[in-house]
Specification:
Protein name: Multiple sugar-binding transport, ATP-binding protein
GO molecular function, one term: ATP binding
CATH superfamily of the largest domain: P-loop containing nucleotide triphosphate hydrolases
Largest sheet: 6 strands, mixed
Number of domains: 2
CATH architecture of the largest domain: 3-Layer(aba) Sandwich
Bound molecules: adenosine-5'-triphosphate
CATH class of the largest domain: Alpha Beta
Order of helices and strands: EEEHEEEEHHHEHEHEEHHEEEEEEEEEEE
Structural class: alpha+beta
Distance between the termini: 34 Å
Radius of gyration: 25 Å
Keywords: ATP-binding, Nucleotide-binding, Transport
Helix content: 10-25%
Number of strands: 22
Length: 380
């Protein structure tokens, strides 16, 4: 149970690469925070800096109000009271399950009877009570990861740091462990920081998610906040899988370059010509500026090519061709070729087939004023 406060935290690697820059983050007591971002965005660098394996080159880190790293202060990893679990469940092959799990207490000189009692308790918590005498080689991947988790929590850490801790596991085991992990951290009131590049995992597990890009935090928010009010096109694209359409903003009207979104659309956040536009730049200024509209897969409906439509902004617009449709838990994750743009749409209620011609109706788009250079299609 702890708060973690990161103020202006930065890390520059020895070769000059900026791993982290200006990180401001307050993680609450008992909160489950996910660090989400594409490969190379700095998730592991941030976690290792919190753990104490990396020294920040600027800013400070405090745990429960006590400075761990900052100007003139440095507390080594073993004195920070944190538990850690990594992707490769680094457990010792020569020790059995109980030996692995009890190791941190043995190191700390905890008496044997007390140690054994605590090992039994934690093994029970992670569902491994019957496996205490097994060697790691005789365990499944999921069981080994539970051993790593048990070892991380045995010394009642202030916070739990997880680096892609579930990524090596197959579904549905991963889904099950996800639920168990969440239940465990709730039960223990543990603050947790969970690094993942899996959007569904971050959104499904965490109280709040911090989205990283190029060593900088783009947005911190609840899963709903990130989906409903992304702060920029990168967040919209990475978190919601939105398709980005560059265009020009004049007098609150967005003129997309793409012929599918072909009208001066909307004004403010009013529904106009079928598409509802959301975003601050819509209200500000009459100067013509480049902008980006982000269209989430859930904001598009598809009509069969021949069907009559009553939404005037799309009548006569270009049709789109289904290029792939993958069945998922929430519907068909469908990709379309829409006059050269790849539009991603979540289709429910019918089965799209490769080659089908359809007419996309865009219900809603988020508009951001950004340099056109920021739009590189999908920010993955
Ligand atoms: N020791 C190092 N020296 C120099 N640069 C490094 C070092 N370690 C990492 N980097 C760079 O820092 C950036 C952030 O790396 P980091 O491992 O934190 O990313 P990540 O978001 O965890 O990525 P992934 O999802 O691929 O694990 C990357 O560009 C990486 O190449």
């Amino acid at each position: 149970m702890a708060t973690l406060e990161l103020n202006g935290l930065g890390h520059v690697y020895e070769n000059g690469h900026v791993g982290l820059s200006g990180i401001e983050l307050n993680i609450r007591d008992g909160e489950f925070l996910a660090l989400l971002g594409p490969s190379g965005s700095g998730k592991t660098t941030l976690l290792r800096t919190i753990a104490g394996f990396l020294r920040p080159t600027s800013g400070s880190l405090a745990i429960d109000g006590k400075t761990m790293a900052g100007e003139g202060t440095w507390v080594p990893p073993e004195k920070r009271g944190l538990g850690m679990v990594f992707q490769d469940h680094a457990i010792w092959p020569h020790l059995n399950v109980a030996g692995n799990v009890g190791y941190p207490l043995k190191l700390a000189g905890v008496p044997k009877t007390q140690l054994n009692g605590r090992v039994a308790e934690v093994l029970e918590q992670v569902g491994l009570a019957e496996y205490a005498r097994r060697k790691p080689s005789a365990l499944s991947g999921g069981q080994r990861q539970r051993v790593a988790l048990a070892r991380a929590i045995i010394a009642s850490p202030k916070a739990l740091l997880l680096d892609e801790a579930l990524s090596a596991l197959d579904e549905p085991l991963r889904a099950r462990l996800r639920l168990e992990l969440r239940a465990l951290t709730r039960e223990e009131g543990l603050t947790a920081v969970h690094v993942t590049h899996d959007r569904a995992e971050a959104l499904g597990l965490a109280d709040r998610v911090a989205v990283l890009r190029d060593g900088m935090i783009q947005q911190v928010g609840t899963p709903a906040e990130l989906l409903e009010t992304p702060v920029n096109s990168f967040v919209a694209s990475f978190v919601s899988d939105a398709t980005l359409f560059p265009g020009t903003l004049v007098d609150g009207n967005f003129h997309a370059d793409h012929p599918g979104l072909r009208l001066p659309m909307g004004s403010g956040s009013q529904r106009n010509h079928g598409t509802r536009l959301i975003g601050q730049p819509l209200a500000s200024g009459s100067r013509s500026r480049r902008a980006v509209a982000a269209v989430a897969p859930t904001s598009v409906r598809l009509k069969p090519a021949g069907s009559p439509i009553h939404v005037d902004n799309l009548a006569g617009g270009p049709l789109a061709r289904v290029t792939s449709a993958l069945y998922g838990r929430h519907g068909y994750e469908t990709s379309l070729d829409w006059a050269g743009a790849t539009l991603r749409v979540l289709v429910t209620g019918w089965t799209p087939k490769e080659g089908d011609m359809v007419r996309p109706l865009v219900d809603q788009a988020h508009v951001f004023c950004e340099e056109a250079g920021a739009v590189q299609g999908r920010a993955a």
